[in-house]
């Protein structure tokens, strides 16, 4: 069954997209123009939960922190792919099982590589 879509079929989507973008742009312009423009030294000072700011915000931070954060997000997202598989485990049959074994093998190979590189060793 070959269904051909005409450009006019997409017209409602483009209208909704245009209206949404128009609303966003209009709201940003109007709020910028009618908002208060008062500034003072106290108002422009950094505020962190009522605790006075200390030091420079540009102090160097160890790259290990960012590596662990990125690795957490990476492996967390990969684990999310296992939930649909677990729900449909019986329906997928042996092919689904083999695919998940391959996926888990690649995931564990990446984890092994990370362990061997010493990324998770915090000093």
UniProtKB/TrEMBL annotation:
Signal peptide: none
EC number: 7.1.1.-
Positions of transmembrane segments: 13-34, 65-86, 92-115
Cellular component terms (Gene Ontology): NADH dehydrogenase complex; plasma membrane
Keywords: Cell membrane, Membrane, NAD, Quinone, Translocase, Transmembrane, Transmembrane helix, Transport
Membrane topology: Multi-pass membrane protein
GO terms, molecular function: NADH dehydrogenase (quinone) (non-electrogenic) activity; NADH dehydrogenase (ubiquinone) activity; quinone binding
Pfam families the record matches: Oxidored_q4
Catalytic activity: a quinone + NADH + 5 H(+)(in) = a quinol + NAD(+) + 4 H(+)(out)
Annotated Gene3D superfamilies: NADH:ubiquinone/plastoquinone oxidoreductase, chain 3
Protein origin, superkingdom: Bacteria
Places the protein is found: Cell membrane; Membrane
Top-level EC class as recorded in UniProt: translocase
Known partners and oligomeric status: NDH-1 is composed of 14 different subunits. Subunits NuoA, H, J, K, L, M, N constitute the membrane sector of the complex.
Function: NDH-1 shuttles electrons from NADH, via FMN and iron-sulfur (Fe-S) centers, to quinones in the respiratory chain. The immediate electron acceptor for the enzyme in this species is believed to be a menaquinone. Couples the redox reaction to proton translocation (for every two electrons transferred, four hydrogen ions are translocated across the cytoplasmic membrane), and thus conserves the redox energy in a proton gradient.
Record PANTHER family: NADH-QUINONE OXIDOREDUCTASE SUBUNIT A (PTHR11058:SF22), NADH-UBIQUINONE OXIDOREDUCTASE CHAIN 3 (PTHR11058)
Family statement drawn from the similarity comment of this UniProt entry: Belongs to the complex I subunit 3 family.
Name by which UniProt lists this protein: NADH-quinone oxidoreductase subunit A
Originating species: Larkinella knui
Taxonomic classification: Bacteria, Pseudomonadati, Bacteroidota, Cytophagia, Cytophagales
């Amino acid at each position: 069954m070959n269904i051909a879509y005409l450009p006019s079929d997409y017209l409602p989507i483009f209208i909704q997209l245009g209206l949404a973008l128009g609303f966003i742009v209009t709201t940003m312009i109007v709020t910028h123009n009618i908002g208060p423009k008062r500034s003072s030294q106290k108002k422009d000072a950094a505020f962190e939960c009522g605790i006075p700011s200390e030091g420079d915000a540009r102090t160097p931070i160890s790259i290990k922190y960012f590596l662990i954060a990125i690795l957490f997000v990476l492996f967390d997202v990969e684990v999310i792919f296992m939930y649909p598989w677990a729900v449909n485990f019986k329906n997928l049959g042996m092919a689904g099982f083999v695919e998940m074994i391959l996926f888990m093998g690649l995931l564990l190979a990446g984890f092994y590589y990370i362990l061997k590189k010493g990324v998770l060793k915090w000093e």
